[in-house]
Amino acid sequence: MSAAQKCRLAVLISGRGSNLQALLDQAASGELPVTIAAVISNRPGVQGLERARQAGVPALELDHKNYPDRPAFEAALIELIDRQQPNLVILAGFMRVLTADFTEHYRGRLLNIHPSLLPKFRGLHTHERAIAAGETEHGATIHFVTAELDGGPVIVQARVPVLPDDNPDTLAARVLTQEHRLYPQAIRWFAEGRLRLEGEQVRFDGQPLMQPLRLEDFANPTEARR
Ligand code: NHR
Ligand code: GAR
Fold first, then answer.
1. Which numbered atom of ligand 2 lies nearest the CA of 20?
2. Among protein residues, the one whose CA lies closest to atom 14 of ligand 1
3. Whose CA is nearest to atom 11 of ligand 2?
C-alpha cells in the first residue's frame, strides 16, 4: 500500500451492521482513509447488507447453510474475500467461529471487535455476564484475530461504567456508542501503517504494546470536534 493508495477493507457481518455504518460514514466523509471494497454477510437479507447498498458498496451474501461444514464454508469465504483484494479484513458483528486455516490465511490483517474488556468475558452474552458478575466497568476491545476465540493480541479498548439500574440492553447500548468510535480509530491506525502484528506482539508506532491502548487517551470528546 503506497501513501497514495487507500487501504482496502473487506467487512464481514452477520446482522444489524451499526459498526459497519460507522465505517461507511467515516469513509464517506474522508475521516477514515479507506476504501470499503465489499461487505460480506453469512446471513442473507440482514440490515447491514442494505446499509452497504445504500452507501454504494458491493453487498455480498455467503450463506453458511449452503455448505456441508465449516471448512467448506470458509474455503468459499476466503475465495470471495481475496477476490476483493483487501489489505485488511474486518469482523463487525460476525457471528461464526473461524478455523485456524482461515485465521492463519489472514494473520496480521484480520481484526475483530468484541463487546467486553478482554480477557474478561470471551464468547457470547457478554453484557448479561458482566452485570451478573457485578462488574462496575465494561466496554469493548479491538484485537487481531487468531485461532483462539476472542484470544488474539489486544490493540485498544473503550470503557464504560456499569450503572446500578443497567440491564443487558441498556449496557449494550452504552458500549455500542463507544464501539462506533473505537473501530474507526483502530482501522485508521492500521491504514496509516502505525499498527501491526509481529509474531504474538502488537506494535504501535514501532513500539511493542505492553498493555492495551485506551481510547479515552486518543479520542477527542465529541463536543470538542463539532
Ligand atoms: N474466530 C476465531 N478463530 N477467533 C476469534 O477471535 C473469532 C472468531 C470468529 C468470530 C467474533 C466473536 C466475538 O467477538 C469472532 C472472533 C461468534 C461466536 C460463536 O460462538 C463466538 C465469538 C465470536 C463470534 N458463534 C456460534 C458458532 O457456532 C454461532 C452463534 C450464532 O450464530 O448466533 O459459530 O464475540
Ligand atoms: C456489536 O456489539 C459487536 O461488538 C458484537 O455484536 C454487535 C454487532 O452489532 N460482536 C459480537 O458479539 C461478536 N461475537 P452491529 O451489527 O450493529 O455492528
1. 18
2. 114
3. 93
pLDDT tens-digit profile of 24-51? Answer: 999 999 999 999 999 999 999 999 999 9
Ligand 2 centroid–CA 128 distance in Å is 14
State yes or no: is 64 an active-site residue. Answer: no
Centre of ligand 2 from the C-alpha of residue 4, in Å = 32
- Please give all residues whose beta carbon lies within 6 A of any atom in ligand 2, as ranges: 13, 15-19, 48, 92-93, 95, 113-115, 140, 176, 179
SS3 letters across 148-207: CCCCCCEEEEEEEECCCCCCHHHHHHHHHHHHHHHHHHHHHHHHCCCEEEECCEEEECCE
Residue with the smallest CA separation from ligand 1 atom 4 is 149
C-alpha cell at 53: 447498498
CATH number of 7-128+140-159+179-223: 3.40.50.170
Q: What is the pLDDT of residues 139-197, one digit of tens each?
A: 999 999 999 999 999 999 999 999 999 999 999 999 999 999 999 999 999 999 999 99
Say if residue 224's pLDDT is above 60.
Answer: no
Which residue from 15, 100, 22 is spatially nearest to 61, judged by alpha carbons? 15
Where do the domains of the chain lie? 7-128+140-159+179-223
* pTM, 2 dp: 0.95
Alpha carbon 151 to chain centroid distance?
Answer: 14
pLDDT value of position 5: 79
